[in-house]
Amino acid sequence: MAKRDYYEVLGLDRGAAADDVKKAYRRLAMKHHPDRNAGDSDSEEKFKEASEAYEVLSDAEKREAYDRFGHAGVDPSAGAGAGGFNGAAFSDIFGDVFGDIFGGAAGGRGRRSVQRGADLRYNLQLDLEQAVAGDTVEVRIPSLAACDECDGSGAKPGTSPTTCPECRGAGQLRVSQGFFSLQQTCGRCRGAGKIIKDPCRHCGGAGRVERRKTLSVRVPAGVDDGDRIRLSGEGEAAFNGGPPGDLYVQIAVREHPIFERDGMNLFCEVPISFVAAALGGELEVPTLNGRVKLAIPPETQTNKLFRLRNKGAPSARRGGVGDLLCRVVVETPVRLTDDQRAKLRDFGDALEGSDHKHSPKGASWFKSVKEFFEGLAG
Description:
The protein has helices at about 5-10, 20-30, 40-55, 60-70, 85-100, 130-135, 275-280, 340-350, 355-360, 360-375; strands spanning about 120-125, 135-145, 160-165, 170-175, 180-185, 195, 210-220, 230, 245-255, 260, 265-275, 280-285, 290-295, 305-310, 325-330. It is of the alpha+beta class. The strands form six sheets. A four-stranded mixed sheet has the order 10-11-15-14. The protein starts with 5 loop residues before the first helix and ends with a helix.
C-alpha cells in the first residue's frame, strides 16, 4: 500500500512551523501509543506512521528533501546518510517528545523508578513590618513521613520486600514495537523493583504515613510578596527509599494601613493644611523604625514628593536599603465656623487682582483656556 503524505498523516499544511509539527505528533502519539491501546493493531500502525512522519518533518534537511522529492527523497533503503528513517535516531526523538509523558524511559536509557518525595508549598502571610525586618515564624504543615513501624520499607517488621520476578528489580520492562524498542514501568511492582508480600499493618505497605510537623522558618529581612523560601528535605517522604522533597514557603505580605511597597521603596501620603503648605513648617512622619521630622518648605504644592533616604526596605538578595517617599496632599478645611469663613473671604479679597502673582499655575491655565476659545472663535 502506498504511503500517505507525511503532512496528511500529521494533519498539517506544508508551511507548518516546527512547533506545530511537534504538537501534532505529540497529540497523535498520545492517542495511539501502544501502552494505551494494547492489542489494537490499527492504533499501532497509526503510531508507527505518525512517528515516521515526525522523524522526517522535524529534521530540516530531511523535510527539505521530502518537500522536493516526496517519499523518494527520504527512502529508507537509501540509509541514514540519504535521509532515510533511522531507528537509532528515533530513540532521541522519542525521548524528546515523550520524556515528560512516560518518565523519560526511552531509547534504552532505563532506570529503576526510585524518585524523590513530592515538594510541598505553604502559604505564609506576614505583616509588612515582619517582611522588612525579618522574623522567625513557626508553621505547622501536614505531610507524608516515613513509617516508623517499618522504617519506610512498607514491609511488616521482621520481613523485607523481595525482588520483583517480572522485571528482576529493574522496575521497568523493555517492550519491542516493530522497528524500535522502549521501556515501560513494570506493571507488577509499579516501578519499585520490589514486591511486598507481607505489608506493614501501620502504613498498609505504603511505607509512609500522614503526619503534621512544626517547623521554624527563618524569614530574611527584606522578603517581598511572592518570594519563596526553600526548606530542603522538609517535603514529603519518598516511596521506595528515595530522598524527601522540599518545602517551599510562599510569602504573602498583608496590606498596610499607611505604607505601600514597591521593591525596596516605601510610599505614604501625608496630609497637610493649606496654611502649612503656604507658610512651611515641620511635621512628624512615620517610618517602620519610628517617627522622623520632615521639613516642609514654604509654598509647597499638593502631590510634592519628599524622599527620606534609607528609610525604606532592605533587599533580601543584593543588600542595601531603599527610601521612604512621602507625598504631601494639601487638605481643604471642612466644617468651618462663620468666623473662619469670614476670614477666608477677607483673605480671598486680599488676593483678588493679583492671582498671577500668588497662583502662577492657575493664571497660566486660565490664559491657555482663553487662547484656546479665542482660536475656536477665529
